[in-house]
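User: Can you help me understand a structure? I only have the sequence.
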Amino acid sequence: MSKSYTATLTRLLAGFAILLCISVSAQGASDKIHYSPEQIRDLGFEIAHELRCPMSVNQNLFDSGAPIASELKGQIFLMLEQGESKAEIIDFLVQRYGEKIRYQPSFSAATALLWFGPILLLFGIITFAVIWIREQRKHQDMKANTYE
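Assistant: Let's start by predicting it. Here is the structure, written out as tokens:
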């Protein structure tokens, strides 16, 4: 290939890359959601009810009077005013404070026992009860046969 052809191809690719970056950034800027004040209030309260206060024991952000809860509620409303979605706000707070801020943890390998543990425990108890009842009946049948 000649140098002029390579230089032209490089300029074209660079121009295409710049146009692609501009369109992606413009699209990212237009992805923001425009909420009404009522929607901001309702969604902010909903998010504050769903998240645990990092300082208060077993209280959500909405009910907590801790200073950090007030700061986080302010952060939630600020992000809503900036057009962030509920999922983006919750993801931001989970990245900042960890999964413990959620009342309902997301499903992962680390939380699988939380999700399936109660069901497995229930099946285990039912299985144990069935086996125990069968053994008791078998034992009673054997007793009844020895007395006959």
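Now, to help you interpret it: The CA atoms of residues 53 and 61 lie 5 Å apart. The first helix runs from residue 3 to 30. Let me know which part you'd like to focus on.
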